[in-house]
Design a protein that fits this description.
- The protein is of the alpha+beta class and 81 residues long.
- Helices cover 60% and strands 12% of the residues.
- Helix 2 packs antiparallel against helix 3.
- The protein is elongated.
Length: 81
């Protein structure tokens, strides 16, 4: 798969491919050159997943019920870890 094709993957597809690469690298059976290529692809997949998660967070709104039982919608702010 070319790196240009990675950008068209869904989050789920990218995570699945990333998991496969991690399992292959952890097995220790991958040749060094192939491991480097797989690692580079894994970095691209990780970045794609992070970007998709960030985009999803921006679309989420926080729904709150006020003390007077009114529904209030506000921006969802990700807590600092």
């Amino acid at each position: 798969m070319e790196y240009d094709e990675i950008k068209n993957l869904s989050f789920e597809e990218a995570i699945s491919q990333l998991e496969i690469i991690v399992r292959e690298l952890e097995s220790g059976r991958t040749k060094l050159d192939d491991a480097v290529i797989a690692y580079e692809k894994a970095i691209a997949l990780k970045q794609l997943c992070e970007n998709k998660l960030k985009d999803a967070q921006l679309k989420i709104e926080k729904i709150e019920i006020t003390p007077s039982d009114e529904v209030k919608v506000s921006e969802f702010i990700v807590p600092e870890v």
